[in-house]
Design brief:
Length: 428
């Protein structure tokens, strides 16, 4: 008997029929003799709809009240799912994040998990019940307020529960059959991977791959949680996220880790670019700029500094950051313009980031050349470049991103024989 944590996303529980289908899968797992803990998201696009509603009643909703609002979506899902399991003759108990012992810091909207004390969950499991937990939410001990974990929070909830309960595997269910070489909504010929390294998955998630969220992948790596990405709508094997240093009897025989030259192509349209023009090219100015950005709470991704103009002794510094952080960063920089001494700011929110990821890059030459040649033949201009040991990222125009991803995917020989299936969901 294994302890299995399962997570079901919004498209998996979008309506009553979907909830009953998920309940049957959970019951089948219990019938097989396993203990089951489930983290569930809000139904369909409920979270986005609640955000839209909040924006209609208040231009800037109070963070505490917004968390109270958004956390209601998962509570609806967990209760309905428990009811559906009860109707199939099995005991199920639903728990909110706070009841499940999901303890977080006090940051509303993007809280981080600081502890998990699943005492009530363990008691329920020992009494033979299936446990259903509302994902995406937690509780701060100091303020005694409900908090939410931000985008992908239900993935993080599931992984945290798996770590705290010492689960054998954390199964992440979504509307696609596993982890693909690219987003199948963007690249229809994307191919499903049977397995992917945790290091590669971390890079893919960090650079726009939405099938798993980066905080969940980080948590899993840190706590040794085995992730199995699967589809709610099919019985296929899915994709195992493997750490070469960890083994599990649940992973199929022969699932040894390979290091493909390129494992996948990730795309991201959620970033903006800020260019600080006319920065005095003297030591300390870059530090001044990014201290200001850091104080604004913005998370900087890529940075490029131009060569100083000899005639003026000034340079330009460009960096990318989430679109949602751009306004506060611009305001903070503008307020310190005289102190830093730069000339002006340019904001561009029409960019897209394309990333190529593969552990085999460490030992193979020509990976960069293939990327740049594919973009050149397509007439796509590169605005910024960033690399790591196993990743190359470029910034291009947002309108060019989808076509660029398809061409680059083909250039690396990643295309499958048929179009990938997306079973449900809007991708919103």
């Amino acid at each position: 008997m294994a302890l299995i944590v399962q997570k079901y996303g919004g498209s998996s529980v979008a309506d009553a029929e979907s909830i009953k289908r998920v309940a049957k899968r959970i019951v089948d797992t219990r019938r097989a003799g396993h203990e089951v803990v489930v983290a569930v998201s809000a139904m369909g696009d409920t979270t986005d709809e609640l955000l839209d509603l909040a924006g209609q009643v208040a231009p800037i909703p109070a963070p505490r009240e917004l968390d109270m609002l958004l956390s209601s979506g998962e509570r609806i899902s967990m209760a309905l799912l428990a009811m559906a399991i009860h109707s199939m003759g099995f005991e199920a108990r639903s728990f909110t994040g706070s009841q499940a012992g999901m303890i977080t810091d006090a940051t509303h909207g993007a809280a981080r998990i600081v502890d998990v004390t699943p005492v009530r969950l363990r008691e329920a499991l020992d009494e033979g019940a299936i446990v259903i937990v509302a994902g995406f939410q937690g509780f701060n001990r100091d303020t005694r307020d409900i908090t939410t974990l931000g985008r992908g929070g239900s993935d993080t909830t599931a992984v945290a529960l798996a770590a705290a309960l010492d689960a054998d595997v954390c199964e992440i269910y979504s509307d696609v059959d596993g982890i693909f070489t690219a987003d199948p909504r963007v690249v229809p010929l994307a191919r499903k991977l049977d397995r992917v390294g945790s290091e590669e998955m971390l890079e893919l998630a960090a650079n726009g791959a939405k099938v798993l969220y980066i905080r969940a992948v980080e948590y899993a790596r840190r706590h040794g949680v085995l992730i199995h990405a699967r589809s709610t709508f099919s019985s296929g094997e899915g994709t195992w996220v493997l750490d070469a240093s960890k083994k599990s009897p649940l992973v199929p025989e022969g699932a040894t880790m390979e290091e493909p030259i390129v494992a996948g192509v990730a795309t991201d349209l959620s970033q903006a670019k800020i260019t600080v023009i006319g920065v005095p090219d003297v030591p300390g100015k870059a530090a001044d700029i990014f201290k200001i950005v850091a104080k604004s709470g913005a998370n900087v991704d890529m940075i490029v500094q131009n060569v100083s103009a000899a005639a003026t002794g000034r340079t330009d510094i460009s960096f990318t950051l989430p679109k949602t952080d751009a306004t506060t960063a611009l305001k903070a920089l503008s307020g310190e313009q005289a102190e830093v001494g730069f000339q002006s700011l340019v904001h561009d929110d029409q960019i897209g980031k394309l990333s190529v990821v593969g552990a085999g890059m460490r030992t193979h030459s020509g990976v960069s050349a293939t990327l740049f040649e594919a973009l050149s033949l397509a007439g796509v201009n590169i605005e910024m470049i960033s690399t790591s040991e196993i990743r190359i990222s470029v910034v291009v125009r947002g309108v060019d991103l989808a076509e660029a991803a398809r061409l680059v995917h083909t250039a690396y020989g990643l295309d499958g024989d048929a179009e990938a299936t997306v079973h449900a969901g809007t991708g919103r």
